[in-house]
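As described in the Methods, two query proteins were run sequentially through the folding procedure within a single session, without resetting any intermediate state between them. The first query and its resulting structure tokens are shown here.
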Amino acid sequence: MSSRSLGSPMYFFLSYLSFVEICYASTTAPRLISDLLAERKTISLWGCMTQFSFIHLFGGTEAFLLTLMAYDRYVAICKPLSYTTIMNRQACAFLVGAAWVGGSVHSLVDSLLVFHLPFCGPNVIGHYFCDVLPLLKLACSDTFLVGLLIVANGGTLSVISFVALLASHVVILLHLRTRSSEGRCKALSTCGSHITVVTLFFGPCVFIYLRPSTTLFADKTVAVFYTVITPPLNPVIYSLRNAEVKKAMERLWVRAVKPEER
């Protein structure tokens, strides 16, 4: 059952964001649960490589999707008369495809940098999943240059996304000064949801990846937060703070409880 009110490009991007979040959590949560129940916790090199690659694929794709959603809000608020023309179905499909390509390139670069390193043992990962810093610590060669390139790769993605997000929201806030109070409240509600999700995503990533390669006690806690807790939480944030989503859910609930009124 679908709702016509949820057919705008924003919900098109949100549906893909939800899909990426599910995939992102699925790369770590099942393995985490199985390791908690197992006495001997082991993973093959190919299994570790696969997990590492998918984590950075879905993480990079999510960063690009969040940036595209900020651009969508900019067009919807600042150019409402041209919104349906600019953000047509073909353009949205192209942008989502570009996000997947960007995430794939980001993942491929990190994977090639890490897995060409020699691992001489003991191959004990001080983490609950295969990530950059734990794997670099296992290499029996100088990893300074590799670590620098990985930080540059992730930093470039983060900086580009952050600058685009910041610029779009600054322009939106400046544009809202000429809107009515009702229009400002509606626009700020949507932008508030997006800013919350962006903060929950980029905050832990900056803490983990854009600092010196030192291990902190809080690393695992922060990693659990952004790989297990945040992914299913983000779509909920959009749903609870969006009036159109809540109205659509209410209509679906009424139809399910009272089918005779359909």
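Immediately afterward, the second query was submitted; its sequence and tokens are:
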Amino acid sequence: MRAKLEVLALVLGSVGLMGTVAIAALPTWRVSAFIGANLIVMEELWEGLWMTCYRQIDVNMQCKAYDSLLALPPELRAARALTCVSIALVVVSLLVTGCGTQKSICCSDDVRMKNVALALGGSLFLLSSLATLIPVSWVAHTVVRNFYNPAVVDAQKRELGDALFIGWATSALLLITGVILLFQYSKRTSKEQVFTGEHLMTEKDVKKEDSIYLPRTASSFHKIQEYV
């Protein structure tokens, strides 16, 4: 059962890796809102981390990379960095967790190192979940705030894109993966402590074969006192 949970964690972590790559590549973080004048113009605008895509009626979608990083709003600049960090963390987490599984040939003779690798992998998955959740929630908060801000014109208002929902689902998967691995680590350590305690108690009870046990004899002085 424990091996199955570890395999499940690796599968969820792999899906989480694909999710982080997808949200970093998709240009649908913010999409145009069809309200007010935009309903008549019928144009569609997608804004992602690396490019914007624009399409009008009967015109194919055209995408263009951002001209300058400094021209981006702060939430998109932070999202670029955090999504890259999240991808790197997930990759490292999968490698470390693979070394810590029971079926792995890495550190096969060192159970303690496997337990440490499993705990480290779970912790890195939790960090990757946080690194994914922060930019997605930040961008979503900015979109909702500007949407209900009367000072912002209708043409500049945006709606939540598909990448944000994928990001929330990916963050949940990475969180579940980290919790499973840390749970496995706690089960392993508790079992190891019980086994170590039983082993020490057995060693205390069993006499060593090479040891010599001599019976206790009365001293000669005690014999003289009895004679007197």
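Confidence is low (pLDDT under 50) at residues 195-201, 221-225. We note this only descriptively and draw no conclusion about the first query from it.
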